[in-house]
Protein: Bacterial transcriptional activator domain-containing protein
Organism: Micromonospora gifhornensis
Amino acid sequence: MRWPRQLMSLLSVLVLLTGPPLLLLTLIGPPISGLPSTAQVRAWVQEPLTEQTLTAALTIGAWLVWLMLAYTVAVRVVIRLRATSAWLRRLPLPTPLQATASGMAGAAVFGVTTNTVPTAPTQPPHPVAADAVALQDEASPDDHDEATHDSGVDVSGGWLPRDVAEQVAAAAALVWLRRRRDYQPRSANRKDADLAPLPPTVTAVQAALADTPTPPAAPMPPSGISALIGVLPDGGVGLTGPGTLPVGRGLLVTALLAGHHHFATTLIATQAALASLLGPAAETLGPRLPLTIVDNVDEAAQLVHEADAHAIDQRQDAPPHALSHRRMVLLGEHEGDGPRVKKLVEASVATGAVVVVLGQWPAGPTWHADSTGHLHDPHHADGTGPRLCVLDQMAATDLLAIIASPNPATPSHPLTQARSPEMRLPRQATRHEPRLPSPTPRQRLHLRVLGDPQLLVDGEPLAIRRSAALQILVYLAAHPTGADTPQLTDAIWPGVPRRSLTGRLYTALSDLRGTIRAASGLHVIDHVDDRYRLNAAHIDVDLWHLGTAIHHATTPLTNTRTAWQAVLDAYPADLAATRTWPWLDPIREATRRQIINICVSLATAEPDNHRALQLLQAGIRIDPYNADLHTHASRILTVLGDHKAATELHDHYQQTLTRTGLDNPASHHLPSTSIRQ
């Protein structure tokens, strides 16, 4: 048992804390008995190394060592108390139905002890009604992050309104679509640097929205760019207070996310403003952002003054929501002073532009910005407007990285300098030659992760209540060698401190294991050497069968057509196609690339152009955004003399790119709505 060891440890700590002070007080006395007199100080200066001074120095050292020990023990006690309080807060309370059932069971027990009742023959247990199970599940804790709610999303380093968060998720989806479009099928052994995950703040926003349903179309307070335009006064405003720079970064990100519909520049910023907002990243990131960077106020005034008069007339007659397309000018802290600002104010009033100064604004009103993102007008009693986006430097840099254009001078992907590990598709575990999928599998449990993830027990889908539990199953299916606790928590809850997630992970795992064990009696998830993995002896995974089929297609075979058809049959849809969990994107894209690599390789080696065209068309059905596949197919159609089909293929591909915003230079960075891959 553990309690004797814990008791001995507690006694040892108490002895260490109380023993030295008692010994020192008994033998030497208190450490301080008063301030030294002038004579004692003079004597010490004349002869510092005496028996008395050495004893005093050793005594002081002993007390300091004891104080350090006491401080360490106090810190450990505080940490343990905080962990205990956090565990108590996460402790699930019984639901009303469970409490009622427990009370009835207790009453029955006490009734049995006080009244003698003849025992009846044992009857087999009746199945529990589904409605009763649903009632018990209604009060079960949710897996969703508490930071996600209808009005916005909390991330490490800031807060985003709901519509801004959705634009971030759309931008992230478009990044992966661009990677799919630009990928050139090659050897499967070559590593792809553009499979690296997106920045942490982006994945945190994606995860917050992944399993959160879109709020109903009810009247909601304005947020995002509409709130930004609606709250800022005409002409310009200065911002002061602790939230000046966080609100300024939020303004920068919000305006760039909302300005992707127009070819004209919607945001103008000075070098000083960008430097104060982004720090050292302004030099490398600023030139790649869809905004105009100027050196001084005169250049900003000239750009605003040159606004198209036709666009101004349209803006005057436009509805209120169209005002989000006005030009904005960001100025640094001391750039709102001086006579040159007058020209900028006149131009902004004439064109409907908005000037935001990160400091005092002598030419207009100055508002107070708090750290939560609210602006306060000091001239109005009720001058608090809607909450705006607030970000620190790291969060703003992460979000701007997916908006910025690629850096041609950098060979690696602009979003990350780290090279992603090579993604290898797992194969169904076996000690013998890999086998193709069998129509009559031997295991009772089947995990389908290609398409809509489902766990089947004897062919019937098993309901998994928690989104985190389903993510664990899919994640372990994609990582057959297993994953440890940090890997699972970082994937499922990105951006959330690990110390607050261990209990949540254990709860999801316990609920998942209990659900599977109750339905099948099998133990599916093993925990060995601090790693979780699926037990291949008890569960069959379609993704592993796909790995087997790909392995057969990449080895020298006599019947290539049969091997390729086996790959197509084993790949009905993308990995977890109905889910938007951010950790899926690199694995999903790596899996897709393995298949189109085989497609192009077989088509290139195929002497029959008709057969090669069929292979390329199959690859296009798997990835309709890849440009290289369409180029190869169009070339073969031209060689076959079917110019009409080549033209139709090209037109259809351009329409596909147009629907997603991939072919529009002005919307090179963002689509207007969220894209599901």
